[in-house]
Design brief:
677 residues; alpha/beta; TIM Barrel; Rossmann fold; six-stranded mixed sheet; 16% strand; globular
């Protein structure tokens, strides 16, 4: 269905409504209007890395994990599987009369904010720190969610528009001050790409942007989004963000003024309760019927595009419930986990050999943790494979597995009545009685995540530093003193400084939050069933780098992210080892066609996948970023001694620069290219 036809139907339907009925439809839990055969609809659903919060669903690797694949085709496949499960659940559950929260087809994903500061708790919901990588991954996710049919399979939502990345603790009253250059060079490009892709919705952030609330910001919402970019979909507030206008930001005096301001600026849908005052504002003459009608028409246009209104049918109506967590989707989750893991160090101990590795001890708070598999905004898998379970299954007929929790994930003791470090002695004994030690440490959503509010009670927030919790550092120190061959596996969603252990361990693997199949994926990588091939979508800094960066509240890009960081990182953006030995043999870059031809070869002794990455820097322009910036990438699979010539698409704006006025202009064209794996 074309948008024009959907809008015509929406106008026809909304014109039959009373003003009160129109107003009722602007809140996320829109009630039924029985006389017009309009069913109840709840707009709030989540799909960050699987259908979330609505019961059983495949839990794919977290968004930051997907970014580490540098594989936008895979991201689109994953999003397509997610939308299939969303339709399957909607088809079955709505027939039972359940149209509640997390049951609809409007998915408030993806999160395409830029992970500009490594302390941000929600950074693992994003595709990392690079605008181009975020653009490619985000647009692929939108294509997968929305499908290619006559109707929208589900409706994607680009969030949080547009300058938003912490701090979490002050988000309800914080003012993000950003230059025009940084806004248009860093914070806006991914949103522009998703609008060009056809994303159906945009969600505003909690904070202010250059003094005006993100959900009532004339410059970003009207001049840029609907003006320059021509966005035609609907705009939704983050949850209870409009209430922040008067309670947090103090730009209005009460809910009536907040309602008026948000509607006038074009915020169509309220996640929260402030739009319960729409009729009060209307009756007082603060807002017009036309303003209410404008938003109602935009919202029903989306509903008609989904094909879910009375008398409509869609090509997705017959997707059966059996598609939820089906084998095809579990296999895809496993493949995604394979591609996402990043190998930091390997002195040759990996891959392990199940015949010769001897007794294996698996130690650490994340070794048998389900929480560390799934990140946040997750569904409920019917099965979880932790790393301990993956190892037990893989080695059960070959070697003995010893297990110790070793420590709590952040508290100084596991048992409340015990002394501090109450599991370390057991961990040491376990290591002493093994031939190979696998230490599984890291974080989970209770440590890094979203500030607690009505929608996510009990979650975490930002990190104070880049170190593991002290209890885990104590555990690592004690186990390393045993002197056995040791591999550290880290499950986390952001930069952690493990540099003090890099020379003390034999190998170090980052598994991110790898999803429900994570334990099998990591086990298979450790034992060489597949080669690790993930690359860092964020810079991993040393903890000392925090003192060199601007304050967390400063949204300037100076000395942060790989494009502007002037220090020496722990591990750089794009880094990741494999079990192969892939090299770039030669390349040719055509600026006129935005393409590169690259010849690559695997000189190693194992088949592997790797990622060709192309970076560019304008050496003479005063407006160019400090360091070369990613302008193209492509994943490639190479057998032993295999050579391939591949074509890499380049960012169409890679050879331009953004000036201080936020304008994209020609640079000097004295370009320096870096091509590497």
């Amino acid at each position: 269905m074309q948008r024009d036809e959907a809008r015509r139907l929406a106008e026809e339907l909304v014109n039959k409504m009373t003003v009160d009925e129109m107003a009722s439809q602007l809140i996320y839990h829109a009630p039924a209007i029985e006389r017009l055969n309009i069913k109840e609809y709840n707009w709030w659903n989540e799909a960050l890395h699987g259908v979330a919060r609505g019961g059983t669903a495949t839990c794919f690797p977290q968004a930051i994990s997907m970014a580490a694949t540098f594989d936008d085709e895979l991201v689109e496949e994953v999003a397509d599987a997610i939308s299939t499960e969303a339709r399957a659940k909607y088809n079955a559950i709505s027939k039972k009369g359940d149209r509640g929260i997390y049951k609809g087809l409007t998915m408030w994903s993806p999160n395409i904010n830029i992970f500009r500061d490594p302390r941000w708790g929600r950074g693992h919901e994003t595709y990392g720190e690079d605008p181009y990588l975020t653009s490619k991954m985000g647009s692929a996710f939108v294509r997968g969610l929305q499908g290619k049919g006559e109707h929208l399979k589900t409706a994607a939502c680009a969030k949080h528009f547009c300058v938003h990345s912490g701090p979490e603790a002050t988000r309800h009253h914080f003012n993000a001050v950003v230059s025009k250059k940084d806004m248009h060079e860093t914070y806006l490009p991914a949103f522009k790409e998703l609008v060009d892709t056809g994303v159906e919705a945009v969600m505003g952030a909690y904070n202010r942007v250059n003094d005006d609330p993100a959900c009532a910001n004339n410059y970003t919402m009207n001049e840029v989004l609907r003006g320059k970019w021509g966005f035609k979909g609907h705009y939704v507030s983050d949850c209870w963000a409009i209430r922040d206008f008067h309670e947090g930001h103090k730009v209005t005096k009460d809910a009536l003024e907040s309602t008026k301001l948000a509607l006038e600026m074009g915020c169509d849908l309220n996640c929260g309760c402030t739009y319960e005052f729409v009729m009060d504002a209307y009756n007082l003459g603060l807002i017009s019927e036309d303003l209410i009608k404008r938003s109602a028409i935009r919202l029903f246009t989306t509903r008609f595009l989904l094909g879910i209104e009375e008398g409509q049918t869609s090509e997705y109506d017959d997707i059966p419930y059996t598609k939820v967590e089906c084998k095809e989707h579990l296999d895809l989750a496993l493949r995604a986990a394979y591609e996402s893991c990043v190998l930091f160090k390997n002195d040759g101990i990996l891959p392990l050999n199940k015949k010769t590795c001897g007794t294996v001890s698996v130690i650490g708070p994340n070794a048998n943790s389900r929480a560390s598999l799934i990140g946040n905004y997750h569904g409920t898998p019917s099965d979880y494979i932790t790393i301990q379970e993956g190892l037990m299954d893989y080695l059960k007929d070959e070697q003995r597995i010893l297990y110790s929790e070793g420590s709590d994930i952040y508290r100084e003791k596991v048992e409340d009545q015990a002394k501090p470090n109450d599991r370390i002695a057991e961990a040491v004994v376990t290591a002493e009685n093994s031939d190979t030690v696998i230490l599984v440490v890291g974080l989970d959503e209770t440590i890094e995540g979203e500030q607690p509010d009505e929608g996510n009670v009990g979650q975490a927030g930002d990190k104070e530093d880049l170190l593991l919790p002290k209890c885990q550092r104590n555990l690592i120190d004690a186990v390393l003193q045993v002197g056995k061959p040791t591999i550290i596996v880290t499950l986390a969603g952001s930069s952690i400084d493990l540099s003090e252990y890099e020379d003390k361990v034999n190998a170090l693997l980052l598994g991110w939050y790898p999803g429900e199949m994570g334990g099998k994926a990591i086990t298979d990588i450790l034992f060489g069933e597949v080669s690790p091939s993930g690359k860092l979508p964020v810079t991993f800094y040393k903890n000392s780098a925090l003192a060199e960066m601007p304050p967390f509240e400063d949204y300037s890009m100076k000395n942060r992210t790989y494009r502007y960081y002037e220090g020496e990182p722990y591990h750089p953006f794009g880094y990741g080892l494999t079990y192969g030995d892939c090299k770039v043999e030669e390349y040719n870059i055509d600026v006129d066609t935005n393409k590169a031809i690259v010849k690559v070869k695997n000189y190693g002794k194992m088949k592997t996948e790797d990622v060709v990455q192309i970076y560019v820097k304008d050496k003479d322009s005063e407006f160019a970023p400090t360091n070369p910036s990613l302008c193209g990438f492509r994943r490639v699979c190479l057998d032993v001694d295999e050579e391939k010539t591949i074509e890499v698409e380049l960012n169409k704006n890679a050879f331009k620069v953004v000036n201080d006025e936020g304008e994209l202009v020609d640079g000097s064209f004295n370009l320096e290219f870096v091509v590497r794996f």
